[in-house]
Amino acid sequence: MNYIIELFYNVIESLLFTGFIAAYFEVKQKYSKKVTITISFSLIFGMITLMTILDPSWVITLSIFILYLVCILEFFYKGTLLEHLLISIIASSLLAFIDVCVLTLFSKILGVEYRELVTQSSISRFLVVLITKSVYLIFVSIIVSFKRKYAIMLHRVELFMISSTLSVSCILISIVRNIIYN
User: Fold this and answer.
1) Distance between CA 90 and CA 179 in Å, rounded?
2) Other residues' Cβ atoms within 10 Å of the Cβ of residue 89
3) Could you tell me the sign of the dihedral formed by the alpha carbons of 55, 59, 64, 68, in that order?
4) Are 108 and 173 contacting, i.e. CB atoms less than 8 angstroms apart?
5) What pLDDT score does 114 carry?
6) Per-residue pLDDT for 172 more than 70?
7) With contact defined as beta carbons under 8 Å apart, do 124 and 117 qualify?
8) Which residues pair with 77 in a beta bridge?
9) With 70 as the cut, is the pLDDT of residue 135 above it?
10) What is the 3-state secondary structure (H, E, C) of the chain?
11) Are 99 and 132 in contact (CB under 8 A)?
12) For residue 31, with 0-12 CB atoms within 10 Å meaning exposed, 13-18 middle and 19 or more buried, which class applies?
């Protein structure tokens, strides 16, 4: 069961990375957009899953993932090598930073060990991962909105609604935790 949940997390993360890349960069003329996005998703999902299985240190994981993203971007998407490198570093580092911040915050709110939220399958971990990925979606939507306007990107009102929903969720989790433990 844990493998299915981890694969679900990997699918979400892969969709976020692929959506961000496809929204930020244009596909090279010689490739079909649908095929390129599908291949990008498959390669990113494979890499994230491989890193989940091998479980190397976070520095090695981040470094390999950045290089992997640069290769995908160079092969399929328009842009300079420097732009591909910078966006890969920003996207990967931003996800790592948001993961650490949200997991730390929720470990304090829930009174649960940080390691437990990272390693054990529980409903708390599931909710925290979904909140983390939602926060990441907000940030990459903001980054893409600086470059171009898309109908699929989130608007200010939607960003506000998601942010307020996440805030209310945090408060409710804290209240429920206090009721249960007191």
Assistant:
1) 40
2) 14
3) positive
4) no
5) 78
6) no
7) yes
8) 27
9) yes
10) CHHHHHHHHHHHHHHHHHHHHHHHCCECCCCCHHHHHHHHHHHHHHHHHHHHHHCCCHHHHHHHHHHHHHHHHHHHECCCHHHHHHHHHHHHHHHHHHHHHHHHHHHHHHCCCHHHHHHCCCHHHHHHHHHHHHHHHHHHHHHHHHHCCCCCCCCHHHHHHHHHHHHHHHHHHHHHHHHHHC
11) yes
12) middle
Report the pLDDT value the prediction gives residue 1, as an integer from 0 to 100. 46
- What's the rounded Cα separation, in Å, for the pair 150 and 141? 10
Can you list the pairs that 74-77 forms with residues at least 24 positions away whose Cβ atoms lie under 8 Å?
Answer: 76/27, 76/28, 76/31, 76/36, 76/39, 76/40, 77/21, 77/25, 77/26, 77/27, 77/28, 77/36
Phi, psi of 114 (to 5 degrees): -55, -45
The gap from C-alpha 176 to its chain's centroid, in whole angstroms, comes to 27
56: phi then psi, degrees, rounded to nearest 5 = -75, 180
* Straight-line distance from the first to the last Cα atom of the chain, in angstroms, rounded to the nearest whole number: 32
Greater confidence (158 vs 125) lies with: 125
